[in-house]
Specification:
31 helices; alpha+beta; 35 strands; Beta-Lactamase; disordered C terminus; 7 domains; 5-stranded antiparallel β-sheet
Length: 999
């Protein structure tokens, strides 16, 4: 297959880089794997060469090969086959028409794992060699477009699935007139890995070079033996303070002028020439840019080249000095420490050093203690195993806070705390020990617990809500005041976050504030007013003060917030603002001229209402921030001075008369009243200006008129005095008449009472008299029978008649007795104001009995409906007189003569203190014009017909006076009238008790 393929073409495909190259020299295959190639263009490169022996033409000792003999001894087909198989790259020949593989070399099998027999007759797709299909497409497109492919990077897969990085080249050749593609693929996976490792190594070296903490500089010794800077790392740039461009190509003395004339340049030059390293531990260097101590090391890195490694040891030198000072300070601190300290040799336990506190604590001097053990001195008094402590020290090297009973030479012991650490010095192990006396600590701990208890009590009883939050904003502690303020049970708030307590309208501002505070340092304060949600859905205003606290203050970092309930303050503030708004509105809408002035100073005008501008005609810009003196308001400035002095003395002025000037020059007479409003820096003078100019004119006119009237008044006075004398006499006459009329009313009532008594007693007494007369007649007959002979039947008849007569006589006498008692009670009640406890029902019944004769003579009927449980502690006499007058008034004035009617008396309790008594009739009623005058004295509709007009007047006075109640009348003409009495069960006691009812 290869015999018709030109060798030059095959070589161009198989090894295109070799085209145009000439071999610099030939070396037998056994000793050469890589060789230096020089291209026709003069380029030099290293190449890997694989040589296969085609045919040995000379013996083993032959040193030259005759090319002509080589050419004659090897057939063309053999040469092609040997070259084809000798290639380390995979070579594949395929028909371009269908992609069928027609030949492959051994390199193909090594790369893909497919033998020639397995590959020939199949396509690349069949073998699934292309790992990335898109790369195959690009490869074929390049081949179709250009007829060849050079250096195509791709990824091929072997039959095991391993993917290789490859570089492929391909050309179209014609074999026996058929188009074929010859592809040469080189596996560059290892090359890329080597290249990557080299790049990484170079990057690491460069990073080490540039990142080295010391200054590294490379110098070259030129022909004149001057050290010239070739390269420098970042450390060198930092040390010199220059840029790289300022260093490269400069002499060492130009870069470091302070080295001129020193041994350093000469030493570096000697290293460059001889290769002998040079070092110096510390050199002090000073120039205009650099000052410090430096450590230098120089080594040869090539012919006439030296690398200088320079380290700035200024800080180390300072640290060494500081270490020396620290050691001295440590020794001093060891001696002045308030705690007992000692150093013990661990091999034998002997003390090698103690401090002064150890001497004071144990009572032993330094000379007495050194060389002895603590056991020998009796310092160790613990009951636990000392060997265990030493074992722990050997294992861990340190122990902390071991309780230790420390003794002294006098046998005393005290509680201390032992801290030990092991250290080595000069190959020997020592133990440094510190005994901390716990006496003060325990006392402080006790005081701390007591303080914490007090603080806890203050925390719980604080009138301010307090919460503590951790770094995540969760509430870890809160006091009772906060839970009460927000309506929660104790413990319900723990674990919640601060924003969960905030009202939605305050939430955004609260979150912003808490975020800012959490980023702030400890001790930072923030204060704001927030609305907090209550458990019942309401809200409470609180003044929040939040403070960041550190772990040193509370054990863990977090936030402490105090919340003061300011709901009442907010309410008061709202009311104050509303009040100020109302004041401003009243101030501006007041018809009186008002002004607000500064306290003290020039008494500048701060505010004026519209009435002031209307009164004095000034523009706002003229008056505001000006004094009344500046705008010429006062006609008399001295009067203003007097006014201000009085104002400051009395802290206010009322009705100060002053003449003021308007803006148009017109004078107005005014009354000024000033009062202080507000306190402290907010205090101002509130001044009212009352223009009394017109009022004063009117007053003057009134004075003139009064002068004229005085004469008239004097004249009229005499006439009035005369008339008053006549009126006084008339009034006395009327009072006498009124008294007599009232007595007449009383006598009429008493007469009615007597008539009633006589009428009621007439019947039982008449019946009794008749029965007594009959019994007397029977007794006379019985006497006669006894004289003539008494029969049993006559005796029985006399006894029966006597029993019947005595029964009738007893009933009538009992009735008469009851009537007398009733009339007597009514008479007593009506002739005095004796107060007693009585049943209203009984009093009403007794009154109706007394007026029963009058009722029977009238066609009217009277009914009573009074509850039996209505008991009063009052005045039954006056109450009876009221009922008598009202019933008589209804019968006389409510009905026409001979007209039948109904009068109802009823009473009900309104509450525990009052009752309502109604007297209602169904008569003709009272007209509206008379209804309002019905209780007036001497008012009557029957004037001249026996009525005095005092009956209802007396009723009104008794009800509203002695009985302590009220009386009302309701009436519609034609529908009767109703008198409603509202009476207390127990009216207030008065001086009129037990007084007669005389007027």
């Amino acid at each position: 297959m290869l015999k018709n393929l030109p060798l030059r073409t095959l070589l161009m495909v198989v090894a295109p880089p070799l085209a145009g190259m000439a071999c610099l020299f030939w070396v037998p295959v056994e000793t050469l794997r890589s060789l230096l190639w020089v291209t026709l263009t003069g380029a030099v490169l290293w190449a890997a060469l694989t040589i296969t022996l085609l045919r040995q033409l000379a013996g083993p000792g032959a040193s030259r090969v005759n090319p002509q003999a080589f050419a004659r001894g090897v057939t063309s087909d053999e040469k092609y086959r040997e070259v084809f198989q000798a290639s380390p790259d995979y070579i594949l020949i395929a028909r371009t028409s269908d992609g069928m593989v027609v030949d492959v070399n051994e390199g193909f099998e090594m790369l893909t794992g497919y033998s020639a027999a397995e590959a020939i007759g199949h396509t690349m797709l069949d073998l699934n060699i292309w790992a990335i299909p898109s790369e195959r497409t690009d490869y074929i497109n390049l081949l179709i477009r250009d007829g060849r492919v050079r250096g195509f990077r791709g990824h091929l897969r072997n039959r095991s699935g391993v993917i290789h990085d490859c570089v492929a080249s391909c050309s179209i050749v014609y074999i026996d007139g058929v188009s074929h593609s010859v592809s040469v693929v080189r596996d560059v996976t290892e090359d890329l890995a080597v290249q990557r490792r080299l790049s990484e190594s170079e990057a690491r070296f460069r990073a080490l070079f540039d990142g080295a903490p010391i200054a590294i500089m490379e110098y070259e010794l030129d022909a004149s033996n001057q050290l010239i800077m070739q390269s420098a790392n970042r450390g060198a740039l930092q040390t010199t303070g220059l840029e790289l461009i300022d260093l490269i190509g400069k002499r060492i003395e130009d870069v470091f002028p302070g080295l001129a004339g020193t041994v350093i340049p000469k030493a570096y030059a000697q290293v460059a020439l001889t290769g002998e390293p040079f070092s110096r531990e510390s050199t002090d260097y000073v120039d205009g840019r650099i000052m410090g101590s430096f450590e230098a090391f120089a080594a040869q890195v090539g012919p006439r080249r030296v690398a200088a490694f320079v380290r700035n040891v200024t800080e180390r030198k300072k640290a060494t000095e500081a270490l020396r000072i620290a050691q001295e300070q440590l020794s001093a601190a060891f001696q002045v420490s308030p705690d007992a300290m000692s150093i013990t040799r661990m091999s034998d336990g002997s003390l090698v050093e103690i401090n002064q506190a150890f001497e004071r604590a144990t009572g032993y001097t330094r000379e007495e203690a050194l060389g002895k053990t603590v056991m020998e001195l009796g310092v160790w008094r613990n009951d636990f195993n000392r060997a265990e402590l030493l074992e722990k020290l050997r294992r861990d090297g340190i122990v902390h806070n071991i309780p230790y009973l420390q003794g002294d030479r006098h046998g005393n012991t005290r509680e201390t705390q032992l801290n030990c650490a092991v250290f080595e010095a000069n190959g020997e192990r020592f133990l440094v020990s510190l005994l901390h006396d716990l006496t003060n600590i325990k006392r402080a701990d006790r005081e701390l617990r007591e303080s914490e208890a007090r603080l806890r009590t203050l925390f719980e009883v604080s009138p301010t809500g307090i919460i503590m939050m951790n770094e995540r904003g969760n509430i870890t502690l809160c006091n009772q005041r906060l839970t009460d303020m927000l309506g929660y049970q104790p413990g319900e708030l723990l674990g919640r976050t601060y924003p969960e307590l905030i009202h939605p309208e305050s939430l955004a501002a609260a979150k912003h504030g808490i975020r800012n505070l959490f980023g702030a340092p400890a001790g930072q304060l923030a204060s704001a007013e927030r609305r907090f949600l209550r458990a019942d859905g309401g809200y409470t205003w609180g003044l929040v003060t939040i403070r960041r606290v550190s772990s040193s203050e509370f054990g863990t970092p977090g936030t402490v917030a105090t919340i003061t309930d300011i709901s009442d303050l907010k309410k008061a503030e709202a009311e104050r603002i509303a009040s100020e708004a109302r004041f401003a509105e009243l101030f501006q809408s007041s018809p009186v001229a008002l002004a607000v002035h500064q306290v003290g100073g020039k008494y500048l005008g701060l505010n004026f209402n519209e009435a002031w501008f209307r009164t004095f005609l000034y523009a706002p810009e003229q008056a505001l921030q000006h004094s009344s003196l500046e705008i010429g308001l006062w006609v008399d400035p001295e009067q203003r001075t007097f006014f201000l002095n009085q104002l400051e003395r009395d802290q206010g002025v009322r009705d100060f008369a002053v003449l003021m000037r308007r803006a148009d020059g017109v004078h107005r007479q005014c009354l000024l009243s000033v009062r202080l409003v507000g306190e402290g820096p907010l205090a101002v003078w509130l001044t009212s200006y009352q223009d009394i100019t017109d009022q004063q004119k009117i007053q003057e006119e009134i004075i003139a008129l009064n002068t004229q009237l005085e004469q008239r008044v004097s004249e009229r006075t005499q006439a009035l005095q005369n008339a008053n004398s006549e009126l006084f006499e008339t009034l006395n006459s009327l009072k006498t008449t009124q008294s007599e009329l009232i007595k007449s009313e009383k006598l009429a009532a008493l007469g009615s009472l007597v008539a009633g008594v006589a009428h009621e007693l007439n019947t039982p007494l008449g019946n009794g008299l008749t029965v007594a007369s009959t019994l007397d007649h029977k007794l006379q007959e019985f006497t006669k029978l006894m004289a003539s002979g008494l029969k049993r039947s006559a005796l029985e008849q006399f006894v029966a008649d006597s029993r019947a007569g005595t029964d009738i006589l007893l009933r009538n006498l009992t009735r008469a007795s009851e009537l007398v008692l009733s009339f007597k009670q009514v008479a007593v009640d009506q002739t005095s104001s004796h107060r007693r406890r009585f049943s209203l029902d009984s009093v009403v019944s007794e009154i109706l009995i007394t007026i029963n004769p009058v009722i029977r003579k009238s066609p009217c009927k009277v009914s009573s409906s009074v509850a039996e449980d209505l008991w009063l502690d009052s005045y039954p006499g006056p109450l009876g007189q009221v009922l008598t007058n009202l019933v008589n008034n209804a019968m006389i004035h409510g009905f026409e003569p001979g007209q039948p009617g109904q009068i109802d008396i009823s009473a009900t309790a309104l509450n525990a203190d009052q009752l309502e008594l109604r007297i209602r009739d169904d008569g003709r009623g009272i007209s509206a014009e008379n209804l309002s005058r019905i209780f007036d004295p001497f008012f009557t509709t029957r004037l001249g017909q026996g009525g005095s007009g005092l009956g209802l007047h007396i009723v009104h006075n008794i009800v509203t006076g002695m009985l302590g109640g009220e009386i009302e009348v309701f009436s519609t003409p034609g529908q009767g009238a109703t008198f409603v009495l509202t009476l207390p069960f127990a009216p207030p006691k008065s001086s009129s008790d037990r007084m007669p009812l005389d007027p």
